[in-house]
Amino acid sequence: MNVKKDFSDAVGNTPLILLRSFSEATGCRIYGKAEFLNPGGSVKDRAALYIVEDAERKGLLKSGGTVVEGTAGNTGIGLTHICNSKGYKTLIIIPDTQSQEKIDLLRTLGAEVRTVPAVPYKDPNNYVKVSGRIAEESENAVWANQFDNLANREAHFRSTGPEIWEQTEGKIDAWITSLGTGGTYAGVSLFLKEKNSEIKTVVADPYGSGIYNFVKKGEVLAEGSSFTEGIGNGRITENMKDAPMDDAIRVTDEECLQVVYQLLHKEGLFLGGSTGINVGAAVKLAKELGPGHTIVTVLCDSGARYQSRIFNRQWVESKGLKLPV
Fold this sequence. Notes:
Blueprint: E1 16-18, H1 20-26, E2 29-34, H2 44-57, E3 66-70, H3 74-86, E4 89-95, H4 100-109, E5 112-116, H5 127-137, E6 141-143, H6 151-167, E7 174-178, H7 183-195, E8 200-206, H8 211-217, E9 247-251, H9 253-267, H10 273-289, E10 294-299, H11 313-318
Helix pairs in contact: 2-3, 2-6, 3-4, 6-7, 9-10
């Protein structure tokens, strides 16, 4: 019987989906790695699984233990699913700026959730630093530390990258996605470059993130702001270090919205804002490369986690934007 033995065994092996309307408009084949089809609903299931299993192998996570993490939501959701299936507890520290849907879902899944004010990473009260302190002070607890724990990018080097290579039969010209922790981007980039150094690995970045200027100018410098959640960064994490970055493309919130609604109405895909940044950047890259190229990006998570925001007219207009027709 072709069955999965548990939740963890069901993570990964997601399909590539041809984004037809975007491909037709550019003359390229633009594929989305359907990470929203992971059992926990997002690309972060992969990192969560590798982080937990790495802690188990090292003897850091013992029976009845707690995994503590600072997260914008999806890693916490993935960790909670995996910890539930393995008999661990989760304590999640999340900025109060994140969507209520993700906060509510974490609590529904059984995580202990503490919201904190959103402050820069340099602030000792930043959600990542708070989670690290709590883990250190707690008994029988480990800190997932997704930003700087290399088990994160290892997940994508060992699973996502090989899957993309196999699914495209090695016929891939460019890989482009946004960075939050950098795990997905770095792991896949490192794998694909090992297979073919000619493959372009390109960063997709929202405004408000410093990674675009890091690639272009060598300094982490943020400009503007964005409503997107869980992507962009103001520092180079351990997962990002040494990752090949051939170029970077920036996408505005307005462009992101247009893409998200096109994905919904023309592709039948109900997806979140980070996917809008990814696909928007893939389209720009396709226009730069010209027709005939194969480009792969990530379809990160479901739009259901953002219904009160990017799919809510009042919220969108409060940001000075209009819902796409």
